[in-house]
Amino acid sequence: VQVHYRSDYKPYPYDIKDVYLAFDLAPNATIVDTTLTIQRKADADNQAPLCLDGVDLELLSIAIDDKELDQSEYRLIEDGLEVLNVPERFTLTTKVKISPDTNTSLEGLYLSSGKYCTQCEAQGFRKITFYPDRPDVMSTFKVRIEAVADKFPHLLSNGNRIEHGEIEGGKHYAVWEDPFKKPSYLFALCAGDYDLLTSSFTTMTGREVRLEIYVDKGKLDQCHHAMESLKKAMKWDEEVFGLEYDLDTYMIVAVGDFNMGAMENKGLNIFNTKYVLASPDTATDTDFIDVEAVIGHEYFHNWTGNRVTCRDWFQLSLKEGLTVFRDQEFTADQTDHGVKRIEDVKVIRSHQFAEDAGPMAHPIRPDSYIEMNNFYTVTVYNKGAEVIRMYQTLLGRDGFKRGLDVYFERHDGQAVTCEDFVRAMEDANGYDLQQFRRWYSQAGTPEVTVSSNYDADKRQLTLSFTQSCRPTPGQEDKEPFHIPVKVGLIDTLGKDIELKPVSLTDSDARVEGDIVHLKSAQQSVTFDDVPRNVIPSILRGFSAPVKLHYDYSLKELIFLFANDSDSFNRWQAGQELFSRVIFDLCEQQEKGGTLRFDDSVVSATKNLLDDNSLDGQFKSLALTIPGVSTLLEQTNSINIDHLITARDFLKKQLAEKLELDWLLHYQTNRHLGDYEQDKESVSKRALCGTCLGYLMTLEKDSAYQLALKQLETANNMTDASIALQLIVHSNYEQKLKVAEDFYQKWQSEELVINKWLSIMATDPSDETIDRIESLLDHPSFELKNPNKVRSLIGAFTSANPRQFHRADGRGYEYLARQIKSLYAINPQVSARLTGAFNRWRKFDSERQQKMRQQLEVILSMPELSKDVFEIASKALK
Ligand code: HT7
Ligand code: ZN
Q1: Residue nearest ligand 1's atom 13 by CA
Q2: Contact partners, residue 831, CB within 8 Å, separation at least 6
Q3: What confidence score (pLDDT) does residue 336 get?
Q4: What does the alpha-carbon distance between residue 800 and residue 40 come to, in Å, rounded to a whole number?
Q5: Do residues 518 and 509 touch, judged by C-beta distance below 8 A?
Q6: Which end of the chain is more exposed for a tag (fewer CB within 10 A), N or C?
Q7: If you measure from the C-alpha of residue 122 to the centroid of ligand 1, how many angstroms do you get, rounded to a whole number?
Q8: Cis peptide before 703 (omega within 30 of 0)
Q9: In whole angstroms, what is the distance from residue 864 CA to residue 823 CA?
Q10: How far, in Å, CA of 117 to CA of 490, rounded?
């Protein structure tokens, strides 16, 4: 296998001045005629061969300046083509044949449910034609598409449609021109018979942009939320960042078979149906927010990704970290900043910390890869967004905006690096980011340990910080990071006191406002005028992606849970409180004896539930016990059976001791009138779901009846799906009948059925594994469809810890078998599934052995894709 290194970057020796592509679409024999106008760069070696990427292409002809090449003049190599002795300026024409119908990888051009569709990021364009398929080769594209008219009335590509017409034999054609230079990964083509929703947006300079959403026939009524979201995103980017859309049309096409969420192709976004279609009866409140977020994300890429793109794929976080940050801010502005921050941090804690601590750990700017698709990770995306957020913390909103302005002024139309981004931030603000750059080069989660010391005579409180970062593959020793730690000090009445830092020695941490700048392995900071018994609130707003250790007493945590003015840290205090109880219960199990925990935890929970000043969504988050994957990341090794038992015990105890409270809050928040989608209704639904979740753990008929009634009377999918989940995951006798009825009711709504599959797969009961085995043959399941695979197999491995980690190893065997069926069909999705074994070292020796064994089984599969090979082999290293 070939490993690609960031340090090997060399500029491409040729400019591709323009590209003309002519597609004659046919399922098994699409013909692609390509004409490239090429010029050798002034500083390039004049002997430089012309190297083009190409995969699964049948070359039919090749010519330079209209002269057909004979076989001695070019060489077909593995995954490409080399032409030797090319002139300084020339036109290269190639004709290739491809087979979209048999392309199950969903990369390149493929046929899905009777419609043609492309996916070119990162390296899919090479499955369409021979081309330098790298992001730093930018060109203008003109595209002609020809197909049978009745089956494919819509023929779409990037930019503006400049020509179209009929041709003989029932065919028609369209020609598209994109005036903006772009890399091949932003090319797109769609052809099919869609329903179309149109609207328009007037930009800040008064230009009218036509907005078009193309969906499967019959789904038009589910597109209105996506259209409104697009308009909101366009307006928001103008208002917040001064960024305006640049083409006359913005098109979105929704497809059912898609490897990821969506793709930001210039002027022609392609979306997974999951992130376009939404109506109250089929989509949950979370789905509505996700649609808005992904629509925003892809729209924001038009500037952060398309106008300024990446020089090479190691720089992926340049566009993804920045665009995730932008979509997070967008959603926060549309919803609730505190709630959104908690939700984003939950992803970091449960998934990114796990990646940082596992075999695939990499910096946000990786140094090497075997398969690029494996590096579309929570580290590159979400930790990347945290790094961008830290610029805003360090430079302030205005400073961050100034940095972005410089970035766009300097680099519009270019393919650049993360270093270019840092420099723009530095230069715009005169701020030294030398040490901050380590966030790009060092992998792993920094750990910050804090202790406090109060000097009653001087009325001074000193906080002492240490930072460290564990070794990650290939990086034994780490240098200290520049970590902005936002702090507050809370007095006994629960009020924040004014921070008055005193500088004692040179080695003290610098404090600016409420930010302590950690730069060395050990630093301290002293505050003046501090009354007795003040409690520090550290890492407010999760101001840096680190693990914080501070030895709070149970009483202090409960106090923070009730009083912290920083909503993130208030939530955090509750999470720490619950985690502490759970780990304590684990220890009790090791020792034997009855399980117990302090009653003050129950009253803290009740107080939060009863706090009328709090919003229901926040309450719901604060009352949710940390999930198993988050808990796993808080320990080095753990008995998973004890962990799950402890978590269930805590939940059930809280349910029992506060039964009437959960019931009361359920009843007072339950809304029985018409469906509303405002913030208050969303909050109430969230809180009801949480209350019902507690009640259901009691396994009482009264709770079952409540859930059944909610399911029967629900006028929206939020209420229906949570009720279904709670019933299916309970011991209710008739649960399978309830599940079957739900299936019958919704069988024609694919996205609802995907929820049903996930609910079936995450049932913690012992029968689940047999059930999901037989669901593979169920009419609702289709191995070639990534949404189905993620809903059934992905949900089982990531959200059913009890069954996936069964002591008998059947969960692991099940996963390996599915990978075996899938890796040749869809390497990308198979590799993602394989990642479920990444944390095998966390478990007991029997489970370790069983997971290792399945990784060996995977590695022995014939003609294993490099995607899966990279994940499995690194896991075993
Ligand atoms: N930039 C895109 C990343 C992507 C992708 C999307 C769909 C299918 C396969 C893909 N491979 C890479 C999505 C985004 O971040 O917006
Ligand atoms: Zn993106």
Answers
A1: 263
A2: 371, 373, 374, 865, 867, 868, 870, 871
A3: 98
A4: 56
A5: yes
A6: C
A7: 8
A8: no
A9: 7
A10: 56
pLDDT band with cut points at 50, 70 and 90 for residue 648: very high
Distance 169 CA to ligand 2 centre (A): 41
ipTM: 0.98
Q: What angle do CA 292, 294, 299 make, to 5 degrees?
A: 95
Instruction: Tell me if residue 537 falls in helix, strand or coil.
Output: strand
For the chain, which residues make up each domain, given as ranges?
1-193, 309-441, 446-544, 747-877
Of residues 545, 621, 613, 623, the one with CA closest to residue 340: 621
- Three-state SS for 799-837 is HCHHHHCCCCCHHHHHHHHHHHHHCCCCHHHHHHHHHHH
Distance CA 485, CA 426 (A): 20
CATH class of 309-441: mainly alpha
**Predicted confidence (pLDDT) at residue 755 exceeds the cutoff of 80:** yes
Selected catalytic residue, list 298, 386, 633, 749: 298
Compute the average pLDDT of residues 567-588. 98
Mean pLDDT, residues 83-89 taken together: 96
How is 600-624 classified by DSSP, letter by letter? HHHHHHHHHHH-TTS-HHHHHHHTS
Distances, alpha carbon 453 to alpha carbons 494, 516, 712, in Å: 20, 17, 57
Q: What b/e sequence results for 207-222 when a residue is b if at least 16 CB atoms lie within 10 Å of its CB, and e otherwise?
A: eebebbbbbbeebeeb
Percent of the chain having pLDDT more than 90? 98
Dihedral angle of Cα 645, 648, 651, 656, to the nearest 10 degrees: -90
What pLDDT, on the 0 to 100 scale, is given for residue 509?
Answer: 87
767 has catalytic annotation: no
Given a cut of 80, is residue 504 above it in pLDDT?
no
Strands of 74-77's sheet in order across: 50-53, 80-83, 74-77
d(CA 181, CA 135): 11
136 Cβ closer than 6 Å to some ligand 1 atom: no
Residue whose Cα lies nearest atom 15 of ligand 1: it is 320
Distance CA 512, CA 495 (A): 20
1-193 and 446-544: identical CATH topology: yes
In 3D space, the residue among 315, 305, 379, 322 whose CA is nearest the CA of residue 347 turns out to be: 379
CA pseudo-torsion sign 280, 281, 284, 290: negative
Can you tell me the distance from the alpha carbon of 690 to that of 862, in angstroms, rounded to the nearest whole number? Answer: 47
Going from the Cα of 423 to the center of ligand 1, the distance in angstroms, rounded, reads: 27
For ligand 1, pick from 110, 260, 826 the residue to mutate: most ligand atoms within 8 Å of CB: 260
| For residue 352, pLDDT beyond 80 | yes
SS3 763: coil
CATH architecture type of domain 747-877: Alpha Horseshoe (1.25)
Tokens standing for residue 403: 């940095």
Averaged pLDDT for residues 711-729? 98
Q: Long-range CB contacts (< 8 A, 24+ apart) of 770-777?
A: 772/796, 772/814, 773/814, 776/818
Closest ligand to Cα 324: 2
User: pLDDT-derived band of residue 225, with 50, 70 and 90 as boundaries?
Assistant: very high
With vertex at residue 169, the alpha carbon angle to CA 166 and CA 171, rounded to the nearest 5 degrees, is: 40
The CATH superfamily label for domain 446-544 reads: Aminopeptidase N, middle-beta domain (2.60.40.1840)
Residue type at 104 in one-letter notation:
T
DSSP 325: H
Atom from ligand 1 closest to the CA of residue 305: 1
Interacting residues of 331 by C-beta distance below 8 A, sequence separation 6+: 289, 292, 293, 296, 340
Q: What is the pLDDT of residues 111-132, one digit of tens each?
A: 999 999 999 999 999 999 999 9
State which fold the 1-193 domain adopts: Immunoglobulin-like (2.60.40)
Closest CA to 670 of 683, 652, 661, 658: 683
